[in-house]
User: Fold Ubiquinone/menaquinone biosynthesis C-methylase UbiE from Microbacterium telephonicum.
Amino acid sequence: MDDADADAFAERVFGAVLGAFETMSIYVGDRLGLYRTLGSGTAWSVEAFAEASGMHVRYAREWLEQQAVAGILRVDDDGRFVLPAAHADVLLDADSLRFTAPLTRMVQAAAARMPELLTAYRDGGGVTWAQFGDDARDAQGDVNRPWFERELAGALAGVPSVGAVLSRRGARIADIGCGHGWSSIAIARACPNAEVIGVDVDEPSLAAARGHAAGTPNVSFVHAAGAALRERGPFDAAFIFEALHDMPDPVAVLAAVRAALRPDGVAIVMDEAVADTFAPDGDEVERVMYGYSLFLCLPDSKATPGSVATGTVMRPDVLAQYARDAGFTGVEVLPIEGFAAFRFYRLV
Assistant:
């Protein structure tokens, strides 16, 4: 054994534990509204913060000091605590592309189901999206919202073959696996002459989507599986945003998409921008996607008997095979870059 290697790995494990504790502390600040109380740039004494936030003063002191030691808060010379503007952008601004505080809810959603996950890992079963609960639903919706609202319409319009379809007067557009509906809403607002239908199997997510869509008359939401899409066509365009890898039978969904599309329609899948092949020296995108897969996406998919169990790390060749099995000839990667950690595919 190389002592230096062992010491380095021990330090890495310690760092992972430290990161886990700090993730939990950010979750507390997010879910209890503590960052909203702090605001950006305002200095707070422990007592004033406790009163304003409704937090017990002893816990307030411990949390504030922990946040300061973690480098999340700044402490002024007079001992008051401040949330720097740059950190507020990440933790507080729901419209910012840097808004990543919701990701801590994903971690908490998985941790809360650890007993069920351990059982699933042994018996091959799963844990449903409903079991992961509101933390997972809200995290998925909130972290993708700024990207969908600010970047999605422009990214799609920037691909001429896609933009031309979306700009058709009276176009019918399907968004399968729409979740909280932000992708559907973004497309509907960018294409006011189109009809957008969001489809999902999770009713609580659809209830949230309907609330978000108030004031956007050309979008509606349907509680249905993606395979039911063929009964609701024809469509000019069909999208699946970061959802195909969760589906127990992706081929059936893609076949339904193909059947529901007009001959000159477009089918787009946006999914994780993972590497083409597995390698043990994967980058941070690979590492985080395997985390999502192990603790959330794969167990959710495995909760349905007969699932193909894709997992979050869906390689391009896997998607291409699904597309061919569904009757398409394959996929092409669209020239959309810098859209978070996602890749856009057109099914051809």
